[in-house]
Amino acid sequence: KIDSIVISNYKAFYGTHEFKIAGKNYLIYGENGSGKSSFYYALKDYFKASTLTKEAAAEHNDILSKKVRN
Prior knowledge:
It is built from two helices and two strands; from the N terminus they run E-E-H-H. It is α+β, with helices and mostly antiparallel strands.
């Protein structure tokens, strides 16, 4: 059960943002450019990174860090 999701400095999310899920379904909606896809990709990248080796995860994190800086 997921209680909350915290996204920090990822794509459209500058700073730290906490989403309190409390184990419920979560509907994401909003205008174009409001961060819906960034929320999805943050979760996708998190779960993808959790299945990588340490070396591959470090390389993946370096790529993500470069995306945030640009």
